[in-house]
UniProtKB/TrEMBL annotation, chains A, B:
The record marks 326 as: Important for acyl-CoA specificity. Transfers a succinyl group from succinyl-CoA to L-homoserine, forming succinyl-L-homoserine. Its EC number is 2.3.1.46. The gene is metXS. Residues 97-341 form the AB hydrolase-1 domain. Pathway: Amino-acid biosynthesis; L-methionine biosynthesis via de novo pathway; O-succinyl-L-homoserine from L-homoserine: step 1/1. The keyword Cytoplasm applies. It comes from the Bacteria. It comes from Streptomyces boluensis. Keywords: Acyltransferase, Amino-acid biosynthesis, Cytoplasm, Methionine biosynthesis, Transferase. This is Homoserine O-succinyltransferase. Belongs to the AB hydrolase superfamily. MetX family. It is found in: Cytoplasm. GO terms for biological process: homoserine metabolic process; methionine biosynthetic process.
Length: 394, 394
């Protein structure tokens, strides 16, 4: 799609007025990708007349080397540190100079998802009347997140990508992107992703959601900024966090045989409390529910896809992790099967180096990194499209 | 141990005054097994100067045929219906006329555990000053529950048992009983029990406990009778309940492929809400925490046992269930190993007929029932001890 001319120059623009960035110290840039003249029509049929996207970029764009990284449920655009003095990114293990997604070689873009609370429009954002969306924010689908990513790239002047890569919910965005716009990238890489939640996944999400909603401080989502269902959200996070860790990993950290100030059985409650408190300080409850709902509704293969009808078949790599009780091996097998039915043969890498579980998707895993690195390098380079554009580190 | 004479006649006594039975419509009988003259000294060193036990009996005692059934975490003394018109028991699949634990043949005793809230002394019971124990109820160990069961049997005039049987936390009581008093029964049967919680078990318990404690209505445990942390306790129950069910079982009930008024993805939230609400209506939060804590502290093989020093080695059957993510196969393997180190060879039955998970421990499983039935029948019958006593159905 083409964007209104008024939006295009936003690349490398200074930060927008503070009201648009309520509590986000670490957004590098913000770009408006939908406004009244070009609203974003969601899958649900609802429209958003204003969508701002918080994004970060790494490396320089040469017209052929763009890699879009899609983030997991509660991460943000800060996929990697912008140098030694910067705060850590959520996927420093994979993205950076000399890393698998080498920012000396690739132009990396990462954006906070639609419905998130780290800069991109979501329940904490102002509506047209200046009040926060809160619980009235429309239902968002994974496909809507992808549509916003695509608008961002259009505005940045990035056409076809070398790759779209993402772990966990990021992997679901990768799959949706492949199904909706297979011509958008040479390669698609989903790490520990899913095409559809299992009944078990949904059940845990239901308990998490219930814990948030039944917290008296939730007030139907109408809590004041900075307030909200702290204990319910902390419980929800603890539940989620435990499903990210494998039983062997928990035993290694908290089993009877280990001891230390932060290990062994006595460390469990403080550890989980800390996970809960840390999360509550950085995440908004309405946004959390919006994203959980998006995952619950996600069913990648339920709708028709153009995938079987495009002449150029992209390369697809699906990676699953041992001990992953969130989106384990069978989720990648299911994705591969669905793609095969649409004429695309996906490679499936099952990581055996770790048994740390879903959490390992963003950890340092040399075997997985090597596989992804080789996959990205083997992909045919895009022809230069003459839209070379230099971007400084954001 | 011998009980004070004043306690013995309580057998078949009428129900005690209402204050001792605050909200329990279905206690059959109540017996005082500790009083000021014979207090119960807990493992922690604390003493209880009054312990009442709610129990039910089935069948007739002939001096040789007593079977004690230990109940899981949140069950009670009502192990089976007392006839066609009675409300269902929690283990009707196993206990009753013609069933595996055949009440036409065995004299079955089941008692609510110490610390529970279904009639036996626990946090909802009155202290000496008439006020409820509440959060001040002493820490209870599995060994304390067993000691109370033993006092109950003494008071009932039951000496050596034919068998002690129990699923889940009941299985842990069985193991503790075996370690503390191996001469008490000819056979010990633990179904889906554990000698010690895994790190994963403890983590889920920690989240459940946190949900209860952080509910504003918990008030440090000082809530009024009938009030309390409803939403936190419901969340805790949902968490527990999900760990009792296997992934395949959840998929069978709530997967995409199934539909119906009570199945498929849309049924998940109502189902879990119902599980939570049902539990909150019947269980006390302080009691729940007391029992969770007992399980967390339980470590059967950490203390010396007389087991290796008794001449007569009882028969031990350990059963584990496929898909059990609470106390699965490895828990029974661990119990068998610990017993082997103490000179007792336990039989281990791994049930493959179901993959319903931990919950299946109290369901109808013909293969498991047959194995337990054969095991009970093969055990040497006790010599008649002349203490025959007839009990009517309670």
């Amino acid at each position: 799609m083409s964007l209104a001319p008024s939006l295009a120059p936003a690349l490398n623009s200074p930060l927008p007025p503070p009201e648009a960035l309520p509590q986000l110290p670490y957004v590098s840039r913000l770009l408006r990708v939908a406004d009244r003249s070009e609203p974003l029509v969601l899958r649900s049929g609802e429209s958003l007349e204003r969508v701002d996207v918080a994004y970060e970029t790494y490396g320089s764009y040469d017209g052929t080397n763009a890699v879009f990284v899609c983030h997991p449920l509660t991460c943000d655009a800060h996929v990697a540190a912008h140098g030694p003095g910067d705060r850590p990114g959520w996927w420093d293990a994979m993205v950076g100079p000399g890393r698998t997604i080498d920012t000396d070689r690739y132009f990396v873009v990462c954006a906070n998802v639609l419905g998130g609370c780290s800069g991109t429009t979501g329940p904490t954002s102002p509506r047209a009347d200046g009040r926060r969306w809160g619980p009235g924010f429309p239902a968002v689908d994974i496909a809507d997140m992808v549509a916003v990513h695509r608008r961002l790239l259009d505005a940045l002047g990035v056409g076809r990508l070398h790759a779209v890569v993402g772990p966990s919910m990021g992997g679901s965005q990768v799959l949706q992107w492949l199904l909706d716009r297979p011509g958008d990238a040479a390669t698609f890489v989903a790490v520990a992703g899913t095409a559809r939640l299992s009944a078990d996944n949904r059940c845990w999400n239901a308990v998490a959601r219930s814990a948030v909603r039944h917290d008296a401080d939730f007030r139907g989502g109408h809590y004041a900024p900075g307030a909200g269902p702290r204990s319910g959200l902390a419980t929800a996070r603890m539940i989620g966090h435990l499903t990210y860790l494998s039983e062997p990993e928990l035993e290694r950290r908290f089993g009877h045989e280990v001891s230390g100030p932060r290990s062994g059985p006595a460390a469990i409650a403080p550890y989980l409390d800390h996970q809960g408190a840390k999360f509550v300080d950085r995440f908004d409850a309405n946004s959390y529910l919006t994203l959980l709902d998006a995952m619950d509704r996600f069913d990648a293969f339920a709708r028709p896809s153009v995938l079987g009808r495009v002449p150029e078949v992209p390369g697809v790599l699906l990676a699953s992790l041992r001990g992953d009780r969130r989106f384990g091996r069978e989720h990648s097998v299911h994705m591969a099967r669905g793609l095969a039915e649409r004429g695309v043969r996906a490679e499936h890498h099952h990581e055996t180096e770790t048994e740390a579980g879903h959490d390992a998707a963003i950890l340092e895993l040399p075997q997985l990194a090597a596989r992804i690195g080789a996959f990205l390098s083997a992909a045919p380079q895009l022809p230069k499209d003459g839209r070379r554009r230099s971007c400084t580190v954001g």
